[in-house]
Amino acid sequence: MIRAYKFLLRPTTRQAVALGEMLRDHCSLYNGALQERRDAYRHISKTSIRYSDQSAQLKEIRAFDPERQGRWSFSSQQATLRRLDKAFQAFFRRVKAGEKPGYPRFKGVGHFDAVAFPKDGDGCRWDSTPHDPQTRVRLQSVGHVRVHQHRPVRGRVKTISIKRESKRWYVVLSCDDVSAEPLPSTGTVAGIDMGITHFLTTSDGAHVANPKFFDAAADELAYAQRHLATFPERTRQRTKKHRAAAQRVAKLYAKIRRQRLDFHHKTARALVRDHDVIAHERLNTAGMTKAPAPQPNPETSGAFLPNGAAAKAGLNRSILDAGWGQFLRILADKAESAGRLTIPVDARNTSRTCLECGHVAKENRVTQAKFQCTACGFTANADHVGATNVLRAGLVLCNVA
Questions:
Q1: Which stretches of the chain drop beneath a pLDDT of 70?
Q2: Contacts (Cβ under 8 Å, ≥6 apart) of 135
Q3: CA distance 69 to 205
Q4: For labelling, which of 21, 92, 145, 208 has a CA lying 20 to 30 Å from the CA of 162?
């Protein structure tokens, strides 16, 4: 089993400056390689340059610029070139599939936030003892950086990445040969229904409240964004005050992201600990949060009819704030590690099907919270009905398999 571990770095002031220079120089390498590919295709009779061609030039680049490129790990620079190559492979795949191409873009220093080391010990070495306060990660041209290791690392460290989030630095370890840690059997099963009023409802009738982290920080975030917007276009990215205002907004978003991630981990852990089998809806979050298509007015050229875009925007914001997709991925990973079973089921009509008579109708869902069957009169909480139907469908799939 493969598992990733993410730990907070605690660099000194000098090390933090060196880490920033590392990202800057790898960003410069990425943009230079992208420019070379663009120029070759445009000016040299549509010539395509591949990863192997650019990787072969690294030795000359490092010798030409030893201060900026020569001091960093050769393998990490190769990983940066592979990152660009993957972006082009995805671009050509989308072109062939007839999708929106999305040509690879140049990266600003503030948006290039990670450097990968493909092999432990090649430019970056993980030196760890479980629960040792002196854990370090050794980085070439940076030094031994202190790590806040809050849990032991299992398996064999394969790749290491250094990542920046706002003003924080993290090390991400990818490990293989990680053994599962099965939990004792509980003999219970559960279905869950995802929602907005309640983050989720189980088939046992228990509700987990939706913390709505984005809404809680909305006022502070709006103030910070208004302050950022007061800077004229010509001064943006050029003054210390503007950079401080931008960092303030980024810091708030990072805090919301960490709060949401922590909530998802704890909620998923509780479900996995208490149930052997968990059935959940198979949700297409991208489709659910898609903006409604414009509706042209047939009577007036160039005019459009109301399409509920404003109301849909509020719903989309609530769905994205809940983070259903991230939660279900975490739930699946924790279940696999604990020897539990998760079963995704089709979400259609799960909240419209009567538990007593099986009647399916849109009118059964009277309100967001109330379910009342139009055929037999059965009444219950709509989310509880949905969770129970999800569990029933999951058990059917489990028995068939």
A1: 128-133, 234-237, 400-401
A2: 7, 127, 128, 129, 146, 147, 148, 149
A3: 59
A4: 92
Q: What is the DSSP letter of 353?
A: B
Q: Backbone dihedral region of 177: left (phi > 0), alpha (psi from -120 to 50 degrees) or beta?
A: left
- What are the backbone angles phi and psi of residue 22, rounded to the nearest 5°? -60, -45
CA gap 272, 277 in Å, rounded: 8
Q: Which two tokens stand for residue 48?
A: 């395509």
Domain ranges of the chain: 3-176, 189-214+246-400
CA distance 277 to 396: 12
pTM of the model: 0.87
For 299: left if phi > 0, alpha if psi spans -120 to 50, otherwise beta; the answer is alpha
Here the tokens at position 119 are 């092999």
CB 6 within 8 A of CB 171: yes
Helix axes 324-338, 240-274, angle to 10 degrees: 50
Q: Which of 144, 137, 143 minimizes the C-alpha distance to 7?
A: 137
Closest of 31, 17, 23 to residue 161, by C-alpha: 23
